[in-house]
């Protein structure tokens, strides 16, 4: 990662104006903040990346690059941080955006799917039943894929409603996140769907080990 970006991690305040002269793919990953609150929290906080105008723009561009030319009808983001990247991707593609919510937030007819999140907690996610018609091609976006349980549940919801996490001619597509860890669940998704993430191969082992 760019040395000047790494220096930002030492500063109490973000420099939202600094952009490295050479913007390699993933340069913005250094803007993310490490966990300082202990094991009950995720090991890394990407939200600082979203505060940086060029960082967010380049992150979304990198996520969408593998899907150039793919037939995508709608972008769906997963509650909650997937809303940020999903909505940004939808705006860039000029497509609609669908929020896949945690249970209990939608006041309309929904279909629900239980899942286990990265921390091992049992949860339920829901999506409204009238937003996805049979054959609708969906790009699913979340902030992070660690164990894969949350993303897999979202895929199951979309497909139960007849949506397609694929594009003609039957080329698997449709899953994007800043990082997709090489966990058992992460590999299951990557083996079955066309996936996009921002972590360079040389850094993937460090992300897998939460370093």
Automatic annotation (TrEMBL):
<dbReference type="GO" id="GO:0003999">
    <property type="term" value="F:adenine phosphoribosyltransferase activity"/>
</dbReference>
<dbReference type="Pfam" id="PF00156">
    <property type="entry name" value="Pribosyltran"/>
</dbReference>
<keyword id="KW-0963">Cytoplasm</keyword>
<feature type="domain" description="Phosphoribosyltransferase">
    <location>
        <begin position="69"/>
        <end position="163"/>
    </location>
</feature>
<keyword id="KW-0660">Purine salvage</keyword>
<comment type="subunit">
    <text>Homodimer.</text>
</comment>
<keyword id="KW-0808">Transferase</keyword>
<dbReference type="GO" id="GO:0006166">
    <property type="term" value="P:purine ribonucleoside salvage"/>
</dbReference>
<dbReference type="GO" id="GO:0005737">
    <property type="term" value="C:cytoplasm"/>
</dbReference>
<dbReference type="InterPro" id="IPR000836">
    <property type="entry name" value="PRTase_dom"/>
</dbReference>
<comment type="pathway">
    <text>Purine metabolism; AMP biosynthesis via salvage pathway; AMP from adenine: step 1/1.</text>
</comment>
<dbReference type="InterPro" id="IPR029057">
    <property type="entry name" value="PRTase-like"/>
</dbReference>
<protein>
    <recommendedName>
        <fullName>adenine phosphoribosyltransferase</fullName>
        <ecNumber>2.4.2.7</ecNumber>
    </recommendedName>
</protein>
<dbReference type="InterPro" id="IPR050120">
    <property type="entry name" value="Adenine_PRTase"/>
</dbReference>
<keyword id="KW-0328">Glycosyltransferase</keyword>
<comment type="similarity">
    <text>Belongs to the purine/pyrimidine phosphoribosyltransferase family.</text>
</comment>
């Amino acid at each position: 990662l760019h040395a000047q970006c790494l220096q930002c991690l030492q500063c109490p305040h973000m420099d939202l104006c600094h952009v490295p002269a050479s913007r390699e793919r993933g340069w913005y990953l250094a803007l993310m903040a490490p966990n300082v609150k202990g094991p009950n929290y995720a090991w890394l906080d990407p939200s600082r990346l979203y505060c940086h105008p060029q960082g967010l723009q380049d992150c979304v561009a990198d996520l969408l690059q593998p899907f150039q030319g793919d037939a995508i009808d709608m972008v769906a983001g997963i509650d909650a941080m997937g809303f940020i990247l999903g909505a940004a991707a939808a705006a860039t593609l000029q497509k609609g955006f669908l929020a896949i919510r945690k249970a209990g937030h939608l006041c309309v007819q929904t279909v629900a799917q239980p899942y286990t999140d990265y921390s091992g907690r049992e949860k339920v996610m829901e999506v409204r039943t009238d937003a996805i018609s049979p054959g609708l091609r969906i790009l699913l976006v979340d902030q992070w894929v660690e164990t894969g349980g949350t993303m897999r549940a979202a895929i199951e919801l979309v497909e139960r409603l007849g949506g397609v996490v694929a594009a003609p001619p039957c080329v698997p597509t449709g899953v994007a996140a800043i990082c997709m860890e090489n966990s058992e669940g992460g590999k299951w998704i990557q083996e079955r769907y066309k996936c996009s993430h921002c972590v360079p191969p040389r850094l993937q082992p460090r992300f897998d080990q939460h370093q």
